[in-house]
Amino acid sequence: MIKTTMVLVMICCVCIVKGQFNGSKSGRISLEDFLKSYMQATNAEIVAREGLVKRRGDPVDLKQLPRDPDSALVYVFNNQRNLTFEITGPKIISVIKKQGNKYIPFPNPAGCPLLRGIIINTEGEDLSEASLTIPGSKNGTTSNNEGKFSITRCRGEKLVVSHIGYKQQEIEWEETNWLTIKLEKKISVNEAHTVTGYRTEGKYTGLPVPYKYKPDLAINTNLFENIKGQYSSLTNHSSSGAPGASQILNIRGYSSIGQVAGWSNRPSDEPLVIINGVPINLRPINVFPAMGRNPQGEGISGTGFNPLSGINPLDIESIQVLKDVANTSIYGSRGSNGVIVIRTKKASDTSLQITFSSFTGVGFSTRAMTPMNTRQFLDMRYQAF
């Protein structure tokens, strides 16, 4: 009779959570088995890193385990040396490592009921993907496609609801398990911008390529040779190797294989160049009269001279490249290939500045040609004719 009574007492101590725990002869089970039984008894979901509970969990003593599942959970983790837990969502419990020996208390389950509800706008339409958070905690959720949500909220906690395009709403605690939350649209006034292309003051309406021109670094008399490689969208090369030869510029890429009528070796996709508000014709200039059969002048290979070669690079204040539609729109079709805006320096009454620059070099002939005498010249002419 005494042996039978001891067996019945042991069974009562083991089956304390709705008959879910199966104790061993010593009245101890692993933490992993305890959590499995707790999930079956409460329909809760327990989340932990793989192998964490098995490696760090201490055995659970079933002799003094409370009958209430939530109280049993608190009791078990209060006696764990390495692990604790926290509630991260409705019916979701995360098992984590203890922060040293610090005790992390479990919130009173009776004070954290599950709150359900729906989120709508002023027209009564359901709002999906609305964010619901509780300030000061990691608890949060979002509404589903029907605008419905569920979240665990403890007594006294506020609920913050937000959605893109709607005003944020803060809801105080109230004794209810259902909420219908109505969000109002948020009207924002955007700044008005006028497309002006290029202007001296103010912001650009598009995306100009910025570059701060530094005259003191100008080592070439050719303006565009000095800025070569400074603009990611600007390509330029000389039309020939002659001194002062015209430059071939391109901003938006080569869009034509033809030539401008009357222009030798000049493509038809060059940008518009504006200096101090005045458009400049990039047509090559021939400063020499026609010589022989070369209408362009001798020594320039028929390409002409660069019209911008007369600008002193030291007089340039800023250079900007406009390549987007917003900036080039005010120039019409002439700006279809991009625009290069150049500003030169102006007089200033603030301070007096004197700039002096000089260049020196040594030149000599590598080999002097020996002139012909009279007899050699006559023989050359005789052979020629």
From TrEMBL:
Look up and give the membrane topology term: Multi-pass membrane protein
Q: What is this protein called?
A: TonB-dependent receptor plug domain-containing protein
Primary location class? membrane
Name where it's found. Answer: Cell outer membrane
Which branch of life, at top level?
Answer: Bacteria
Keyword set, alphabetical order = Cell outer membrane, Membrane, Transmembrane, Transmembrane beta strand, Transport
Using the record's annotation, list all stretches that form the TonB-dependent receptor plug domain: 233-339
Q: Which GO terms describe its cellular component?
A: cell outer membrane
Organism the protein comes from: Niastella populi
Assigned protein family: Belongs to the TonB-dependent receptor family.
List the InterPro entries hit by this protein, alphabetically. CarboxyPept-like_regulatory, Plug_dom, Plug_dom_sf, TonB-dep_OMP_SusC/RagA_CS, TonB-dep_rcpt-like
